[in-house]
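Record passed on underneath.
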Amino acid sequence: MNKTLLLTLLVFTFFISKKAFAQITIDNFNDNINTNWVPGSSKYILKEELGYLKVTSNGTGANYEGFGKTFPSINMTRHTIIKMRIMVPTGATAPRIRMDITDNNGYDSNKFPIVINTVADSIYHDYSFNFAGKFQASWPTTISLVSGKISRVYFYTSAQIGTHTGDFYIDDIQLEDAQSPSILPSDSEWKYFDNGSLPAVNWMDNAYDDSGWNADSAQLGYGDTDEKTIISYGADVNNKFTTTYFRKKFSFIDTTVFKNILLNYIFDDGVVIYLNGTEIHRDNLPLGTINYATLASTELTDSTEENTFRKLVFPESILDSGINVLAIEVHQASLTSNDLSFNLTLTGTEYNTGLVRGPYLQCLSDTSIVIRWRTLEKTESTVKYGFAVSSLTTIVTDPTLTTEHEVLLKGLTPATNYFYSIGTSGQVFSGGNAEHYFLTAPTKGVNQPVRIWAVGDAGKITYEQRSVRDSYYTYSNNKHTDVWLLLGDNAYNEGTDEEYQLSMFENMFESKMRNTALWPTPGNHDLRSYMTPGKFAPYYDIFTTPVNGEAGGIASGSEAYYSFDYANIHFVSLDSYGNSRDSTAGMATWLKADLTATNQRWIIAYWHHPPYSKGTNDSDGNTSEDIKMREMREQILPLLDKYGVDLVLNGHSHNYERSHLIHGHYGHSSTFLDQPHIINTQNSGSKALGEEYYKNPVHTTLPDKGIVYSVMGCSGLKSNSVKWISQSSNLITKSLMNKSMNQYLGSMVIEINKDTLTAKFLDNSNTAQDEFTIIKDNTKDITLSIATSNQKGSEDKNPLYVYPNPTVGDVTIKYTLEKNSKVELEIFDEKGTRTDVIVLGKKSKGENEYILNLSSKEVGLYTLYFKADKAVQIKKIVKVK
């Protein structure tokens, strides 16, 4: 057996031994390290190597730089010892390792640091981290962790004296004596019998000896090209074996952690499932006694049906403490069937059979709404609603049995408050109280006050995420939120359904979801693990978007991008990751039609990748993510300018940036000073300072032109990245943006009333760190102006002259310093590439001069960055023949 397969089995299955251990199911060390294990510092490099997690650290300190992973929550109420197998190569520096755990409130076990010292001898050793009595946080507040809901591990390393540099390897991570929720994962190894006969009458019993059977990994079968193991159907393609048999022994530790067991299975065409010799389920086979020759009732020919896991729910008591055996027989519907499939998973869950997720509100319009929820078992779907909590007299029921409930209510009255409950016709799962309500949208075009809440990159399952949430809740003071926008990266790190559960639905936004419709857009973390053929992102299963124009706007026909109306506002959600950003592609074609059709007073567009950012991501950069930002700027922004969009909201960069009211810039940031791009003067947008932004919808030359761009990927985390530090003097930060801040977590609150839009960046301590106002005024004169390169006034303090300009060779740079300063010059070509860095060193107060020789440069436009200590000025230099 190869190393990778062996480790997969070690991580996900349970073996009988004198002392039982179970995996936390943190990682099988064969997944995508870049998305599953996350380095919190550039000083760490994480890599899969031969089935191990290889950790390379470069000068890491025990209290600052770390790495870790978020996972579906585990219960550490009764079992408190986490064991790790670690190997440090002989001769390397043995690290000191600290482990922190985090609960689903986002609090870390930082009050009592638990550390171990490793040994460098090229041997894997078991190390124990005992959290008994240490489920305590000291920062940002003293609080006890919820030991039954641990959702992250995080590691810090240092040398046993000082910082650490070197490699070490992690094998297993185990929660001692605890049962993993992943009892049998997908693609486990199964014994199988495929010789065209019945193995024995008692083949399904626990005591049966299956040592002579073949063994290999699921999915098992033939004919569909997706099998990991091809099994035999006999020598005659027109007379295939009727029945194939499968067995799996596994250990289950008796515990009260789980309430139910989920059994998910794939089969083709008929199946019988036995547990410890007793039949517990059959599907697509006749009732009564069956045998080897019994054919399945119908042939499964739909590929979706053949490849979709079906779910069964059983009480935990169905399993024995100790060794259990699952025995499966799969029957063909005909002896000429061209395919066979089998796979099965077994998972423990703490949920009861009723409500697991929700309710949450989707697709709100003036006359309709979609209410969604999830249950563990399949039930019918019933919503009761009415004008008072005590009078839910209108009932809508969908008799289809499902776990994913989605009920459309229609024929509602605009701008009306309704109360509701969800459940079945005979049972209420949730609702029937004052918290469960929805307020239908006002009639399209009505001028009335509207409150919008926008969060970006919120899905971190941390204290920081909750602090942003709580700050807004305090600010809103129970006032209803009309529109709730999600700006992408709603669930880190892969956008799995489990991550969404913790990021949004469990101990996070439940109270807001019961009465506020949310409108999502996808980010790279929501989609990137699913951008291969045959994979489907949970994002699209979780959210219902108005693909057919149900909430206003033009039907997009796509769940990825859409539009809707609320009062006098038109909202447009775009997909900057999974769809083509080209101006001739489907999304842009729809966008043109949608914006042409709307006559709403305000237009707000939102998507994930910002067209302008010099934060933790660079809209002038060359990474795949940077290119998406650039393409949105080059291909999509001209359409938004043309059709009078007012505000653009983005995430992705983990900081806050907010532009002036700008128009017509689609190129590299170095071109921002080349033409007039600022609407009127370069004001702050502050109403308190009398510097509001104005737009004139009927202006003769610039009707309704100008957009404010806001980057707000800091609703779950903020970053002091190297990029931010190195980009502090660029044109986007200095000229295009009015505010650029990386020290705050926060969200945006937008209030629109008739012709006035006011937006606040609200930090996680309920303080507005930025505020701007846009006013639509038919009487205002609107002009375009060229931005200045230094909005802080340092050009007045340190006068700078560059001449001759244009030049054929030498350029004289004359500058006056108000104090002794360190002076440096940077030269960029017209592509934005830095060509020269000239350090002039410490220069004296007063007039100074430097001759810059451009004789060797090609003809073209160059940008000079003049830096005097922290002050930066930017000049354009034209080189001619």
Summary: Confidence is low (pLDDT under 50) at residues 1-34, 790-796.
